[in-house]
Write a structure and sequence with these properties.
The complex is a heterodimer of chains A (66) and B (688). By secondary structure, chain A is mainly α. Chain A has one domain (2-57). Chain A is built from 3 helices and no strands. Chain A is flat and about 40 Å long. Chain B is mainly α. Chain B is 72% helix and 1% strand. Chain B contains 27 helices and 2 strands. Chain B has a two-stranded antiparallel sheet. In chain B, helix 12 (253-269) packs antiparallel against helix 23 and helix 14 packs across helix 25. Classes of the chains: A mainly alpha (66), B mainly alpha (688). Chains A and B meet through helix 1, helix 2 and helix 3 of A and helix 4, helix 8, helix 13, helix 15 and helix 22 of B.
Chain lengths: 66, 688
């Protein structure tokens, strides 16, 4: 039961973060390591900034303006 | 047994829907509870989702769960990430939900709540959700390509460029009309203006906080920001009452317009982490939270609809927007039922997140149904108000005069009895000096929301707070759109100008950057300013123009979908997209045609220009103009609007012609010619 609640909360937090364009950092690190253990990995801070830049820099439509 | 049970449930849902519709439509003279509208809408959504979207998924598109999605193929944990479908759903809904579905239905309420409700429901089921679903599907089958790229590969390079120009023009008109909504809401309102102005330092603080003090703590900073925002909102009341501060924040429309232009320019050249990102957090969470709150509020308060089901203004003589029910009701509602912009979002981030192709149905079709429900709620909020109050708020000063006495007399003359006392009392209740002629949807929605929410929490005493909360919430996310949208427009301009003069396309150069931003702000600023000084309210002119543009973009996306279905040789099912495409083309072209060539100067830009030119020739000055020079300006603006309308129409027709050409070539052969990327199947599942 406790596990389920924890999973539910994580899902909520992930949804809220993704709503503002910030993806999941742990998933990113895990995937990066899996692809190539020696590849450089962005810090959490850099990761958030990358996501912000992707969403808001204006090079693509991140969200509906209307 | 299982089958029988399922059938029984759907029969119950269908009957609940039918009964609610009967209650709404057949009730004459008695008040109807808004809950019936909610039940009717939810039954329609349930049935549309269960049956129609499933038909599209299984038969028309033949979604294949065994096929790898772009997120799986290119999974880098960064841009392409297979994501849980509920998380993706939340993301997608937040990305498509904007101000449009809140404004359009409020304006459309002038014809009564029934026509608007019917179009919101039918439109989303057969057109809006279909468009979102199909563009998402097309993009998933093409490694997450954008709409523009898909048009280029499926229709050809020339239609690709035409579509980009069309999208740029839509952006300009959209930003102008949204900024105008904010101006209308804040003119002469020190409380609202203060609260909105306070969001800028709050956002800057949040930006610095997430960058230097507690990096990356989005949840934490959003909560701090929200608390500060609520403090600013509460303090706004003191500001409005203060003899020193109130005049500082009591601004005229034109001053607000200039302030917005300067803000838009500065915000879009600053680094995104400083201002845009924190505002994005605040506005996104506030928006989603308020939508949920409003839904709960409507169900608990169960307000009665005060607006008649159908008003006399279905004949096209209404004060809020001019023109007949066909085509202008459809143009006005726009986003709540079909929004062309969603085709850009559905071909943006979302296709790079899907875990499985089969989820395109729930995310593409499903999220749009929720968006349509937001439109229904906006319509309810406008319809629970006394119609007299509704018309006082939404009719231009040129029609109802500038005082409560004049307004009450004119509106009572239309058959919506109202006294000046009610109008002044309402203004007092919501903490404003006047509520007259605040067209643009936001203030009306705010009064409606205050009406509903204050009956749940706080009573009359809280009404002013609720009103300003609603204004804050709308203005905040509109302004976030204005700054983000200006950036998008800037890149589009750099891209397009870059084809003529290469150096300007360099997005890292400050010169190119500033020139393109100035051009972007200058263009939407021109239309905004023109709207602000228009005594007929501006919304009257600009909202239909935006509606035409947005429906036109949907028409383009659906044309692409139709052509691709033909290229896939799914000819038997092509009606699924052909029907909404045809309808949207008829609506936009008819509306465009009437905007150009109708006899009435109220509807047609050219007729209006002729009327003013004739007056100039006689040396007479017509209101709104105060001098002959202003008369010339009015005529000039009319020609600009007319040119823009003609360009929109030209874009639609061009896309149609190219579409027909490609479709004919696709039908001349018997094999599929759609340019999907080759299917890659999950291991061991290809033969399953």
């Amino acid at each position: 039961m406790r596990k389920q609640i924890a999973a539910f909360c994580t899902a909520w937090v992930r949804t809220a973060r993704l709503m503002v364009g910030v993806k999941d950092y742990e998933t990113y690190v895990a995937r990066r390591r899996a692809l190539n253990p020696n590849a450089p990995v962005m810090s959490h801070d850099e990761f958030v900034r990358y996501c912000q830049e992707q969403r808001l820099s204006g090079k693509s439509a991140g969200k509906c303006p209307c | 047994m299982q089958r029988f049970k399922e059938m029984a449930i759907w029969i119950v849902v269908a009957m609940a829907g039918a009964f609610s519709f009967a209650t709404i439509a057949l009730n004459r003279g008695e008040t109807v509870s808004a809950v019936w509208l909610v039940v009717a809408a939810l039954s329609v959504y349930a049935i549309a989702y269960r049956f129609y979207s499933r038909f599209i998924a299984d038969k028309v598109l033949q979604l294949d769960p065994r096929r790898l999605t772009p997120a799986e193929k290119f999974n880098d944990g960064l841009d392409y990430v297979p994501t849980n479908k509920w998380v993706t759903f939340g993301h997608h809904f937040a990305a498509i939900a904007g101000a449009g579905p809140l404004v359009g239905p409020v304006l459309a309420a002038q014809m009564g709540y029934l026509p608007g409700t019917l179009w919101i429901l039918v439109g989303v089921m057969l057109a809006g959700a279909v468009q979102d679903f199909l563009t998402l599907f097309l993009s998933v089958r093409r490694d997450g390509k954008s709409l523009g790229d898909m048009i280029k590969t499926e229709l050809g390079p020339v239609p690709g460029i035409i579509a980009s120009i069309g999208i740029l023009m839509i952006m300009i008109i959209l930003l102008a009309v949204l900024a105008l909504v904010v101006v209308k809401a804040l003119t002469g309102s020190p409380w609202g203006t203060f609260a909105i102005a306070a969001t800028i330092p709050i956002a800057l603080f949040m930006g610095v906080y997430t960058r230097y003090i507690r990096p990356g703590k989005i949840g934490e900073v959003s909560i701090i920001g929200f608390v500060l925002l609520m403090l600013a909102l509460t303090y706004g009341k003191e500001v409005a009452a203060s003899p020193v501060l109130a005049p500082l924040f009591t601004l005229k429309g034109t001053s607000l317009a200039w302030a917005l232009m300067i803000y838009g320019f500065v915000a879009s050249v600053l680094p995104v982490w400083l201002l845009l990102a924190p505002r994005d957090y605040l506005s996104t969470f506030l928006k989603v939270g308020t939508i949920v709150g409003l839904a709960i509020g409507i169900v608990i308060a169960a307000p009665n609809l005060a607006m008649p089901a159908v008003t006399r203004f279905v004949d096209g003589s209404g004060p809020v927007f001019s023109g007949n029910l066909f085509p202008f009701l459809f143009i006005t509602i726009a986003c709540g039922s079909v929004s062309g912009f969603h085709s850009l979002v559905a071909s943006g981030t979302t296709p790079k997140l899907l875990e499985n192709e089969s989820q395109a149905r729930m995310i593409g079709y499903g999220a749009m149904l929720v968006e349509s429900f937001v439109a229904i709620m906006a319509l309810i909020a406008a319809s629970v108000l006394d119609p007299g109050v509704y018309f006082a708020m939404n009719s231009p000063a040129g029609v109802i005069g500038k005082t409560a006495v004049d307004a009450a007399q004119v509106i009572s003359g239309w058959g919506f009895a109202i006294t000046p006392e009610v109008l002044t009392q309402m203004a007092k209740d919501v903490g404003e000096t006047t509520i007259l002629s605040r067209a643009g949807g936001a203030p009306t929605l705010a009064v409606g929301m205050a009406h509903i929410l204050s009956s749940v929490i706080g009573g009359k005493a809280m009404m002013a707070i609720w009103y300003h909360f609603a204004i804050l919430f709308e203005a905040l996310f509109i302004l976030t759109t204005v700054d983000a949208g200006t950036r998008v427009t800037r890149f589009m301009i750099q891209d397009l100008l870059g084809t003529v003069y290469k150096p300007i396309a360099n997005t890292d150069s400050w010169a190119g950057n500033l020139i393109a931003t100035a051009l972007a702000v200058g263009m939407w600023g021109y239309f905004l300013y023109q709207g602000v000084i228009d005594p007929l309210g501006g919304i009257n002119t600009l909202w239909p123009l935006f509606g035409i543009a947005n429906q036109m973009l949907a028409g383009i996306a659906l044309t692409l979908a139709t052509v691709v279905l033909l290229k896939m040789q799914r000819v038997r099912y092509v009606w699924v997209t052909l029907l909404p495409t045809t309808w949207l083309l008829i609506v936009t072209l008819t509306a465009g045609w009437q905007k150009l060539f109708h006899d009435s100067p109220k509807i047609s830009f050219l007729a209006h220009a002729r009327k003013f030119s004739a007056s100039v020739a006689e040396g007479k000055v017509l209101a709104p103009a105060k001098s002959l020079a202003e008369m010339h300006q009015v005529v000039f603006n009319d020609y600009v609007d007319a040119t823009l309308t003609a360009l929109f129409m030209a874009v639609v027709v061009a896309m149609l012609v190219f579409g027909i050409g490609v479709a004919r070539r696709a039908l001349a052969v018997r094999w599929p010619t759609a340019r999907e990327v080759p299917a890659v199947y999950r291991q061991g599942e290809a033969d399953a």
